[in-house]
Design a protein that fits this description.
about 400 residues, Rossmann fold, 7-stranded mixed β-sheet, 4-stranded parallel β-sheet, 13 helices, 13 strands, about 40% helix, elongated
Length: about 400
């Protein structure tokens, strides 16, 4: 049963770009193009900032071959924004929607984006204006509640797992201590993906630190020392959001101890992986503990995790496209608002379903890595996490060793 509502549609892409967010964009456009109820499909150039500036790009006449090319292109084709709309900002968005007869609003992003949908939708209800507002899930952090996993995560996890496979081989060839800092301010899903290519205990990462477990710099150095003594090398995965027992970011704590200035972003958050500081601080801690001549290196994966060309997971691409389609189908069918959640229905064979959930169920909430996957005693991730992750990530490169090496 469809809705008789007619008008224009706006689609925006928010927050950090991903490998597959354009799949969601194209999926949404494909369904909207087939509806007689949608007059114009307006792409918001640079998300909510583009909406209030009335900076729209018409998408309804894009040919299918162009859409297909856009779909497999990483990053956000429409441009993105880090703006976090408050009540006044959302009121401006609603006023633009009224002016342009926008009746369908689709916003691809994380939990902040779902909250934007919620506030704008409430503005419309208060004004008696019929608006169908849908949040399309997107985040490499995999931290949206009510979802088994989110579009963008599988591809980013594939990148992290592949990078650690390569770094483990490098670390075997030239033994030393190597730290890799992975994205994840509050949740360790992506950092934990580092273990996916690990075949046995000799393979790195040998230690994994996630925000779900309090970080102790002294124990960290002791753990590294123990692994180094055992294997003659140590590969470490560290989430950018690690913190102490009181919740203080380790990046800020070590910066203060080592006499460095703490950088903050536009929202007042301590700069974590983006600055490279956390890896440098941890490397210095190890050198202080084991000796200045110890070979220690640190890399920060940073933005390369988000939209690395050629590493998208096929499953991630398919699911991102379908999430966009489902949002459009639900809106056109008469559902006024909601978020599309991906929920696993079977492990073998791997299957999922796409369900509409309330915006209030997901908005401004964070889903963390379950403790059942974490071996906090030895600062590592259990192999059971591979069973959850493998179908989302897809096949990884094969590798082998010369016997005796």
């Amino acid at each position: 049963m469809g809705s008789d509502l007619k008008g224009n549609a706006v689609i925006g892409q928010s927050g950090g770009p991903t490998h597959v967010i354009n799949q969601s964009l194209v999926g949404c456009v494909e369904v909207l193009k087939e509806s007689a109820n949608v007059e114009k499909i307006l792409g918001a150039h640079h998300a909510v900032r583009g909406i209030i500036n009335e900076d729209f790009i018409e998408l309804q006449d894009l040919p299918q071959d162009v859409l297909e090319t856009i779909a497999v292109t990483p990053s956000s084709a429409l441009g993105s924004s880090r703006d976090k709309p408050d009540d006044e900002y959302c009121n401006k968005i609603f006023q633009v929607f009224e002016k342009h007869n926008v009746r369908f609003f689709f916003y691809a992003g994380g939990n902040d984006s779902s909250d934007t949908c919620r506030i704008v939708n409430e503005k419309a209800k208060q004004a008696g204006y019929e608006l169908h507002a849908f949040h399309i899930p997107k985040t490499i952090d995999n931290d949206l509640v009510c979802n088994d996993h989110t579009p963008g995560f599988g591809s980013a996890a594939r990148f992290v797992a592949s990078a650690f496979i390569g770094d483990n081989l490098d670390n075997r060839a030239l033994p030393g201590i190597k730290i890799n800092v992975v994205m994840g301010r509050h949740a360790g899903w992506l950092t934990a993906a580092a273990i996916l290519g690990r075949k046995d205990e000799n393979d790195g990462p040998h230690l994994v630190y996630v925000p779900e477990v309090a970080f102790d710099p002294v124990k960290f150095c002791q753990d590294v020392d123990a692994i180094y003594q055992k294997h003659g090398r140590c590969l470490i995965a560290v989430s950018e959001g690690i913190h102490d027992a009181e919740g203080n970011p380790i990046a800020a704590k070590l910066a203060e101890q080592q006499g460095h200035h703490v950088e903050r972003d536009a929202h007042g958050n301590v700069q974590l992986s983006g600055s490279g500081a956390l890896g440098d601080f941890l490397a210095q801690e190890i050198k202080n503990y084991l000796g200045k001549k110890t070979r220690v290196r640190a890399d920060t994966f940073g933005y390369t995790q988000r939209a690395c060309l050629g590493l998208a997971s096929p499953v991630d691409q398919t699911e991102a496209r379908e999430a966009g389609r489902e949002a459009a189908r639900q809106a056109l069918a008469g559902d006024f608002d909601g978020s599309i959640a991906i929920q696993r229905t079977s492990d073998n064979p791997y299957t999922v379903e796409y369900k509409r959930i309330e915006l209030t169920d997901v908005a401004a909430k964070t889903r963390t890595l379950p403790l059942e996957y974490i071996n906090d005693e030895n600062n590592n991730i259990l192999d059971s996490y591979k069973d959850y992750l493998a179908p989302i990530v897809g096949e990884l490169p094969e590798f082998g060793f010369i016997p005796g090496t």
